[in-house]
Amino acid sequence: MKAGDQRLSLEKLHAWEALGFGMFIHFGMSTFDGAEHSKGNQPASFYSPDHLDVAQWVSVARDAGMKYAILTAKHVAGFCLWPSAHTDYHVGHSGNKTDVVEVFVSECQKKGLMPGFYYCSWDNHHLFGSGTPTFVGWENAYTTREYRDFQTAQVEELLTRYGGFGEVWIDIPKVLPRDYRHELYDRVASLQPDALIVMNHGCSDGSKLRIDWTWPTDLITIERFLPNSQTGHDPWRTVEEKEYYLPGEACDPIGKNWFFIEGDRPRSDSELLGMYLISLSRGANLLLDVGPDRHGLIPEPCVKALRRLAENIGKVGAGKRTKESGAPS
Fold first, then answer.
1. Were 125 and a residue from 40, 108, 138, 291 both cysteine, which residue would form a disulfide, CB within 3.0 to 4.6 Å?
2. What angle do CA 84, 57, 74 make, to 5 degrees?
3. Are 198 and 167 in contact (CB under 8 A)?
């Protein structure tokens, strides 16, 4: 049995795979300005949930049979769901001063879910001279050293302030040069060595690993797709003449949008069940995104859809992945 050259042991990676099903939670300034790729030009006070209930989010995830949850601590708007010492663009200066990250981690611990956080490298508010996809286009986007130092400081803040995270999700790693990605990866690993570190692979079925913009990573994300229908997710990958075991994580919203948008309804029961069954049977976890609304609550149609999904999963007895190709050889 080969062990692989990856940082984490096969035992730890298989334990993560056994979680199977998680909730992605997109919430922040984009919930209020209605723009997924927000320009980050609204004042912090524009974020103002009037019935914020983070406990409800985690309870809904638990009741749906999810075993972990990933929260967007900072998205494209640059607005922070915790009172960061490195900026004033955060909940402490907003219309609702709740430290969302703190409550989220606490509720996950209470309810038996593994907590993780998402941090976006595309930041339209904290430019520090960077050129983001919003202002210079995808192909020309870049970050400055000053911005990257800011990102490191904030990630360190999250990792040292709130206890243990099982997964650290870094989005848009393409705008980070590879030497910095290694630097950030090593820093996260030094602070929380048991956490899986994700450099988002982007929109694809994950069959081809994009070394140029996603390495190093502990997982291969499969965004807006399901694992390849012919091969499923093959976790064994050769990267620069070394063999790595890299589990797969399919991520997609419950409806059309990552953040709450009025009128965006959940997919049909059969489609949601299919997403779950196909992801696991093809060797990947499913991270299903659900966006709380402007009140700070997961909308009732989503709650009901997830309740029905849990019932349907129970009916087919699909509690674990069935694909055998993920087993080490």
1. 40
2. 25
3. yes
Terminal C-alpha separation, the chain: 5
Q: What is the mean pLDDT of residues 81-90?
A: 98
Question: What residues contact 316, with CB distance under 8 A and at least 6 apart?
Answer: 273, 277
Residues 246, 220 contacting (CB under 8 angstroms): yes
Domain count, the chain: 1
Instruction: Give 61-82 pLDDT, tens digit per residue.
Output: 999 999 999 999 999 999 999 9
Residue 232 lies in a domain: yes
Nearest to 223 by CA among 198, 205, 196, 208: 205
Instruction: Indicate which CATH number applies to the domain containing 271.
Output: 3.20.20.80
Three-state SS at 179: helix
Residue 205: per-residue pLDDT: 96
Residues, the chain: 329
Helix axes 54-63, 300-316, angle to 10 degrees: 20
Q: What is the pLDDT of residues 203-227, one digit of tens each?
A: 999 999 999 999 999 999 999 999 9
Q: Which amino acid is at 94?
A: S
Backbone angles phi, psi at 2, to 5 degrees: -85, 150
Alpha-carbon distance of 184 to 155, in angstroms, equals: 9
CB 69 within 8 A of CB 61: yes
